[in-house]
Specification:
The protein is α+β, with helices and mostly antiparallel strands and 876 residues long. The protein contains 22 helices and 39 strands. The relative contact order is 0.08.
């Protein structure tokens, strides 16, 4: 293994290669670029750096030199003080940020450094930080919502928000009456690392006071993955150039509010009332209650230290804050350490309140809490890790995405928890922490790795079935109409007015017309049942959900005498840019292709379940009150729903789509650069996306993400439409040229389509863009408002489906590998139909181990696996 050796000790950097030595001169950025250019053309396996640490300020962030080289060259570069092999492996399991760039960039870093366990999420801030435009500490609890009124454009509107809970992370120092609050002028150095394997946040900092006193601070933080209602911090500080008095303060801060999303800040943002504050010795208690939803959040903490005398703590109660502080005589170059562990509980208004006696409770110190959490994380990684070789950065990002999915929902945190996964995880407040159709992209991760968790998430929907039925009735439909945005009680939480941040104007929001969310729920029920084979779930919940959803679509379909087909009107598709027809006074579109084809699939599935579970099906029909005539009408509709298809075989996104104008993409790309949100650009110019053939993301193409082409062909045949053989290729090219990728999910769907039509280079390009989308915040700041849980889950699914060829949608597990050139091998585990599989593949063969004897298919050929035995199957 040939390694480059780089020495930054002197002003001129020295590079030692296996074949020659070079010297680089100039400013650090110039030398770094010279170094990069040289290494890019050198056959090496990585590099070792000696000398001083070098930080590079780049447009995309502040990087340490070895980190910058690693990311640019996709090769491991490490410090000479580390064992190369161990350090190179660790690079795949940690995310590090250097420096501090206040504002949107800092907000994005905090999202990506969040620690969580499915029950709670703590943004990656330092304990000293307070809510401001520069940085944003927040504690999020799954399903903690509150509705508040705001006045917008002289109208009173009501928004349900994902509430920022009271902050018990807060710890800070006071030196010479100056509070260390981690403002820019105080920070001399800051490095934060998230250790993905263990869920540990670790920060090192040096702060400077106005009088020139320097203090080193280190922070460790975990959200306990074993005891998911606990989190723990370790806070250590050391005076570097002085000895003297330092006041150490720990707070339970109830003076918090929602501030994460800039466009929401003009709305009501205070959601909590403080109910109780207490402090006794090293313990503190804060109880808060949401103003409208009446959810009680109870938090108590305990402090520990081996070298600070905590008997000297001074406890005071302010209006919304419990403050515990003590002043010590600190010695230069001496560390002082404080542990703080916090217990968090929430109780809804119908639940009995939690009574805490501080004399009776006890919590573990940081070391014990971190150790048990790390052990719990390892169990999850053993089941969910995807391992690739030949591509360091892809492996790192796969680990990052797996970590954040398990932080958003986990077998531990979601057990018995009435919650689903928000579009932005437990990481931020975008979309007000609501649950969308993103579940369609997210649930497969849990279905194949943690089916019990998938069941819990589906039960969140079942418990809100009554609300969906009420909403359907109000809108003039039958059955269940699930909301586009769901929160606490399952009522529609989509905004009625939406702010365009480019124009600064509010406009009517029709997004609630995306009724296809119910089809995503139906699809997930089918996926779960097909692979978990949980008949009990289907009998008690699944069939009822499917029938009520199908009843809604049956009632929405209307006969059109002119077309001699059924049509579905007043809906929006996944595209989201098109809310209505040009200049229409009413929102909604007719015959959205994706929606109509998914309805056909659902009605087909209803017929199949009637045959598969006849007794239980009849019981569900009786429970829902459906009639034989209704079921017969569904069977008729599935053969007569309308689509609009041109002579080339292009399936119109909706009726009338081909009549819309084409857009001059080159003009807008040159004028604006970033055209992801083309709808907002057009709106700011006094136009509307409704006038143009422009899409935010895949719409009619989404059907090919959900189903293999053979199944889509069957749906089209059911509808008596005959398309040319190459219709998928034509549809992909047509819509790809008209899509702005305003949603990060768009790239994932198009990547799968590109692989389907054998454009592997395009598939890889789009997949890589999706994989990096949050890490590089390619949408210009949206990661600041939370990670994109849907795209993270989808980028974990594509390696298994599109690249490893896994298809769990058939009656028999099917594998048709298509490994990317950049990857040497791919390995993963999954649980399907009660069987645990261990699968590894190269470009030539696939090795499979199952814990039960079973027959599967590899490249459409049957292969029998013997329990516990490795089977190697060549596929090329």
């Amino acid at each position: 293994m040939k390694l480059a050796k780089i020495n930054t000790q002197t002003a001129d950097w020295q590079l030692e290669l296996p074949t020659k030595n070079l010297t680089f001169t100039g400013a650090p950025a110039e030398k770094a670029q010279q170094l990069l250019d040289t290494l890019a053309n050198t056959a090496i396996a990585g590099g070792i750096l000696t000398g001083e640490e070098v930080l590079l300020a780049q447009p995309e962030g502040i990087f340490e030199l070895s980190q910058w080289l690693t990311e640019k060259l996709n090769l491991p570069f490490v410090s000479a003080t580390e064992d190369f092999k161990t350090a190179a492996e660790n690079l795949k399991w940690q995310v590090t940020y250097h420096g501090y760039r206040p504002g949107k960039d800092e907000y994005s870093v905090e999202s990506l450094l969040t620690v969580g366990n499915g029950f709670m999420g703590l943004r990656g801030t330092m304990p000293e930080m307070e809510i401001s435009d520069e940085h944003y500490p927040a504690t999020y609890l799954a399903s903690l919502y509150n509705t508040a009124a705001s006045v917008v454009s002289d109208q009173t509107i009501y928004n349900e928000d994902f509430v920022n809970a009271p902050n018990l992370q807060k710890i800070y120092l006071i030196v010479d009456d100056e509070k260390i609050a981690f403002e820019k002028e105080q920070i001399k150095k800051l490095t934060r690392t998230l250790h993905l394997k263990t869920g540990l946040f670790h920060a090192n900092a040096i702060v400077t006071t106005k009088t020139g006193k320097e203090i080193a601070i280190t922070v460790k933080k975990i959200a306990n993955m074993q005891q998911t209602e606990q989190y723990s911090l370790q806070y250590a500080f050391m005076p570097l150039n002085f000895s003297g008095t330092i006041t150490l303060v720990s707070e339970a801060d109830g003076d918090v509010y929602n501030y994460n999303v800039a466009r929401y800040r003009s709305l009501t943002k205070n959601h909590l009332d403080i109910v109780n504050l207490e402090a006794k010795a090293t313990k503190a208690l804060l109880v808060a209650k949401t103003k409208a939803s009446q959810i009680t959040v109870t938090q108590y903490s305990e402090l520990f230290s081996q070298n600070i005398d905590l008997t000297q703590l001074e406890n005071t109660l302010a209006e919304k804050v419990v403050r515990q502080k003590l002043t010590i005589s600190a010695k230069e170059n001496t560390w002082y350490t404080l542990d703080k562990t916090v217990s968090v509980a929430q109780r809804r208004k119908e639940e009995a309140p939690l009574h805490i006696d501080l004399d009776q409770v006890s919590l573990p110190a940081f070391g014990k809490s971190a150790a048990e959490s790390a052990a719990a994380w390892q169990i999850l990684w053993d089941k969910a890790a995807i391992i690739v070789t030949g591509d360091l950065m892809s492996q790192k990002l796969l680990n990052l995405h797996t970590y954040h999915l398990l932080s958003s929902a986990s077998p531990n945190g979601n057990k018995g928890l009435d919650a689903s996964i928000t579009a932005r995880g437990l990481h931020g407040e975008a979309y007000r922490g609501h649950i969308f159709w993103d579940e369609l992209f997210i649930l497969p991760f849990y279905i194949i790795h943690f089916p019990k968790t998938a069941r819990e998430i589906l039960l969140y929907r079942y418990r809100r079935l009554p609300a969906a039925k009420i909403d359907a009735k109000k809108a003039g439909y039958k059955g269940a109409m699930f909301p586009w945005q769901s929160g606490l009680d399952g009522t529609e939480q989509s905004q009625e007015l939406h702010l365009n941040p480019i124009s600064g104007k509010w406009k009517e929001d029709h997004s609630r017309l995306q009724r296809h969310v119910s089809l995503a729920i139906a699809y997930n029920i089918w996926q779960y049942f097909n692979n978990a084979q949980d008949e009990d779930f289907m009998k008690q919940y699944g069939l009822e959900l499917l029938l009520e959803i199908a009843h809604f679509w049956e009632s929405a379909a209307q006969w059109d005498e002119t077309l001699q087909r059924y049509t579905i009107d007043h809906v929006m598709g996944p595209d989201e840019f098109h809310e209505s027809y040009p200049n229409a006074k009413k929102g909604g579109l007719k015959n959205n292709a994706y929606t109509n084809m998914m309805v056909v699939w659902l009605f087909e599935e209803i017929e199949r379940l009637q045959e598969l579970l006849p007794t239980d099906f009849l019981a569900a029909v009786e429970k829902t009150g459906l009639t034989t005539e209704t079921l017969e009408k569904m069977a008729t509709i599935k053969n007569k729903l309308a689509l609009e298809i041109n002579d080339e075989g292009i399936i119109a996104q909706f009726a009338g789509y081909f009549d819309l104008k084409d857009l001059d993409w080159d003009y807008y790309k040159e004028k604006y650069g970033n055209v992801y949100r083309m709808d907002r650009i057009l709106n700011a110019e006094g136009r509307s996306a409704d006038e143009y053939q422009v899409a935010k993301q895949a719409d009619s193409l989404m059907i090919f993400y959900n189903f293999p082409q053979q199944k889509v062909n069957e749906i089209l045949q059911d509808l008596n439409y005959n398309l040319p053989k190459d219709y998928v290729t034509k549809n992909l090219a047509y819509y790809l040229a008209r899509t702005s990728h305003g949603s990060t999910l768009s790239r994932v769907v198009h990547a799968q389509l590109a692989a389907m039509v054998d454009d592997q280079d395009l598939a890889w390009q789009l997949y890589q863009e999706a994989l990096y989308s949050d890490y590089r915040d390619i949408q210009g700041g949206t990661t600041a408002e939370g990670i994109h849980a849907g795209v993270m889950a989808a980028t974990l699914y594509i390696p298994l489906t599109t690249f490893a060829g896994l298809d769990i949608r058939q009656e028999v597990l099917n594998l048709t590998p298509n490994l990317p050139k950049a990857w040497t091998s791919l390995a993963y585990k999954l649980k399907i139909r009660g069987v645990h599989f261990d699968i590894a593949l190269t470009h030539n063969d696939i090795t499979i181990t199952a814990d039960e004897t079973i027959t599967i298919q590899v490249c459409d050929k049957p292969v029998t696996l013997n329990a516990g035995s490795k089977t190697i199957v060549p596929y090329k």
